[in-house]
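Predict structure. Chain length: 128.
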Amino acid sequence: MKISKPSDLEMQILSVLWNKGDSTVREVLDSMPDGKKRAYTSILSVMQVMEKKGLLNHTTRGSAHVYSPAVNRKKIIRPFMRRVLNEIFAGKPSAVMQALLAETPVSDSELEQIHKLLREAKKSGRQN
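Prediction complete.
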């Protein structure tokens, strides 16, 4: 089954579920990364559509539906990142990293994690 490209709101919901784990609609609503005020019914409707699209699954816990991602983060993120890399940064990963570091506060521990990822990429031969 071909998975449709998630909207921005759907990406946020997937992000919550990937990071937080299986969650109710209320838990997703309370954890939305953009912090916008939304109605419970709005998030519920989007999540029901996402389930029909094959992006989410649900089980029942008492009277609540508990949702989980039906898609792997890499499967969704890979085409998104490629598009950003190619369309905005002319295919240059260093330009992405430069923009990220210039536009985002980065703690010392995050910088160390970035250094570790770069060392691992070099060691595994993932560079061109």
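Summary: The chain has six helices and three strands.
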